[in-house]
Amino acid sequence: MADSRGGGGCCPPMDLFRSEPMQLVQLIVPIESAHLTVSYLGDLGLIQFKDLNSEKSPFQRTYAAQIKKCGEMARKLRFFKEQMEKAGVLPSLNSDAQADINMDDLELKLGELEAELVEVNANDEKLQRAYNELVEYKLVLQKAGEFFSSALSSAAAQQREIESRQSGEGSLETPLLDQELSADSSKQVKLGFVTGLVSKEKSLAFERIIFRATRGNVFLRQTAVEEPVTDPVSGEKVEKNVFVIFYSGERAKTKILKICDAFGANRYPFSEDVNKQSQMITQVSGRQTEMKTTIDAGSLQRNSLLKTIAERYEQWNSLVKKEKSIYHTLNTLSLDVTKKCLVGEGWSPVFATKQIHDALHRASIDSNSQVGSIFQVLDTKEGPPTYFRTNKFTTAFQEIVDAYGVAKYQEANPGVFTIATFPFLFAVMFGDWGHGICLLLATLVFIAREKKLSSQKLGDITEMAFGGRYVILMMSVFSIYTGLIYNEFFSVPFELFGRSAYDCRDPYCRDSTTIGLIKVRDTYPFGVDPVWHGTRSELPFLNSLKMKMSILLGVAQMNLGIILSFFNALYFKSSLNVWFQFVPQMIFLNSLFGYLSALIIIKWVTGSQADLYHVMIYMFLSPTDELGENQLFPGQKNLQMVLLLLALVAVPWMLFPKPFLLKREYEKTHQGQSYVPLPSTDESAELEAAHDGSHGGHEEFEFSEVFVHQMIHTIEFVLGAVSNTASYLRLWALSLAHSELSSVFYEKVLLLAWGFNNVFILIIGIIVFIFATVGVLLVMETLSAFLHALRLHWVEFQNKFYEGDGYKFSPFSFALIDLEEE
């Protein structure tokens, strides 16, 4: 069994500390009950199936036809969803769950509904196009009618003017004019014309092309339509012009028609006869009214059909998705030689054995199978997946760890400690109980409405904040706690836990610094004494406090990481990692930085004025020199020499013994056997390979490679001990930046506005202060502190013990399929 090596039980059981024990199981299922079996296992969601047909293409697998059928049904459902979204019809979320629907019946039903909907859409499209054409035709009749009526009236006026000129008798020019008119009337040519609509933005180009194509032998008139018109072809609202083009000759007509087609201009017939025009307008208006009534009736029918679909849409969609996933899973099972059974393999948690047995038994009974399914556990040397049982509170913290890398099977999980350490380190950088309360209130809104919000589609940033609501809750609670320690409420100190321990010597020191203050009461009981705020000594005092506190927290967390590597080594029975990794690492780290932490605490307790920078530097440069005034306790010089010697010894202790012992162990295990490869050069993996002679192919033990990797790990740890400790100083830097920014906004915005004694300026100042606090301190600073806390966990803490080279347990589960779709 894959989990047999985890039976050490070195520490009390914790749900998240070790991943769930996993087992490789084999299922032998009769074909007649296979579908129902996989369906029940999908409801259970506790088996991760292995693909036993990986060499086959999707089209060669047993259930390819069924998957294709489900894909076609899914396409029809997507089509229905698009149509419902266009019509503004929402799927019913609480549709009545009916009895099991037969998939063949559902396929027929969906086909009929699709055909009906397609037909309704086609009819509606035709009617809508005809209606839009009638609207355009009516506009052409109205606008072109105006052209012709104005042209006729002007022609009649000209005729009257000519007749009046000719009425004078005895004129010498009369006979000549008669001849001219008779000659002109004999030469008159009948003009043709084209009417229609063209897009307003194309009208100038349209007119120019017509003019050039006919060499100016046309007369074109355009007028704009007041409101946008729905184009019959595209169905979009377009601003258009009505045009009338007069031409002479068939060649000109052919050119004009081609240009109209090229510009998408819609042409409509028009009569010169005024009586016919009014008659046509009446007819078009009547047809338009009839068409509108028909379209409305069609829309009602379409909406009724879509509402019928919407009532069952979610149920059908869920059923098709489940059915498709079942067949995909069945395709990962191999057909047994008798072709009567399907054989499947997969990983499942040990605790799920009884539930899987029950599901198999129910499936056999419900499918009336004469033969039951067989469930058996297989022995394997393959690495199992990692599975942690999380809830809505712990999931977000586990996601933070998994973003770095999924834990190796049953290695110590940093997620357990991240629940406390991550929000605490964030709060050290974000310590202000006023800002913490703001974060807390925002988070409580998310938590109070989580049922409603979890079923809604949120924006990317809101979705992220909502998913991590419990992380933000812990961050805000810890921020209130550290804010009370720093005694800062939007940078303002309060005497919450009693009066200050200091008082002025005389009335003139009210606005002075600590000079002139004397201690008159007991020490302030909790956190920083409010008297420090606003004094000349505030920055040096808080800098010293926060810098030393950062080092203490960093060394404590790094020690925790190394201790967890000890529990890993003990759990996996790796004595090499205990003696040649854990022990020298603890000695090296604590000989230097553990000693520094002890000096900080001693200095705080004794009130000594010793310079710790000088002590640590000369511990390396001149370890035999006397410490003088920097001595904190008797025998300090000798202790420093011992610690320095231990730190120097720890480096070769980490570097040399382990590769040689691994080589000796390998040779002893494989004496007289062919060489077997090591799966990895990681310490624990090397040891596993040394104990396991049957794994892999035939490669020689590469001592040089193992030694080089061990040297890299040693150098990385030695240099990392220094750089990681320095990295924790970001706690001090960001805490100082947050405090100073908060102080600047309070003093330079709020107090400055208050000092003007003007209500308007005060309101402006309050608004600027609120926006600056929210935008900079509650958004940007929160993100900055979050990212720095993330780095401290991933790099400084987790690299001491966490390999993170596992893979996540991904069971076949209908619940997960629904979440992925969302």
From TrEMBL:
<protein>
    <recommendedName>
        <fullName>V-type proton ATPase subunit a</fullName>
    </recommendedName>
</protein>
<dbReference type="GO" id="GO:0000220">
    <property type="term" value="C:vacuolar proton-transporting V-type ATPase, V0 domain"/>
</dbReference>
<keyword id="KW-0406">Ion transport</keyword>
<dbReference type="Pfam" id="PF01496">
    <property type="entry name" value="V_ATPase_I"/>
</dbReference>
<feature type="coiled-coil region">
    <location>
        <begin position="96"/>
        <end position="130"/>
    </location>
</feature>
<keyword id="KW-0175">Coiled coil</keyword>
<dbReference type="GO" id="GO:0007035">
    <property type="term" value="P:vacuolar acidification"/>
</dbReference>
<dbReference type="InterPro" id="IPR026028">
    <property type="entry name" value="V-type_ATPase_116kDa_su_euka"/>
</dbReference>
<feature type="transmembrane region" description="Helical">
    <location>
        <begin position="424"/>
        <end position="447"/>
    </location>
</feature>
<dbReference type="InterPro" id="IPR002490">
    <property type="entry name" value="V-ATPase_116kDa_su"/>
</dbReference>
<feature type="transmembrane region" description="Helical">
    <location>
        <begin position="582"/>
        <end position="606"/>
    </location>
</feature>
<feature type="transmembrane region" description="Helical">
    <location>
        <begin position="639"/>
        <end position="656"/>
    </location>
</feature>
<feature type="transmembrane region" description="Helical">
    <location>
        <begin position="759"/>
        <end position="780"/>
    </location>
</feature>
<keyword id="KW-0813">Transport</keyword>
<comment type="function">
    <text>Essential component of the vacuolar proton pump (V-ATPase), a multimeric enzyme that catalyzes the translocation of protons across the membranes. Required for assembly and activity of the V-ATPase.</text>
</comment>
<keyword id="KW-0472">Membrane</keyword>
<feature type="transmembrane region" description="Helical">
    <location>
        <begin position="468"/>
        <end position="486"/>
    </location>
</feature>
<keyword id="KW-0812">Transmembrane</keyword>
<feature type="transmembrane region" description="Helical">
    <location>
        <begin position="549"/>
        <end position="570"/>
    </location>
</feature>
<comment type="similarity">
    <text>Belongs to the V-ATPase 116 kDa subunit family.</text>
</comment>
<keyword id="KW-0375">Hydrogen ion transport</keyword>
<dbReference type="GO" id="GO:0046961">
    <property type="term" value="F:proton-transporting ATPase activity, rotational mechanism"/>
</dbReference>
<keyword id="KW-1133">Transmembrane helix</keyword>
<dbReference type="GO" id="GO:0051117">
    <property type="term" value="F:ATPase binding"/>
</dbReference>
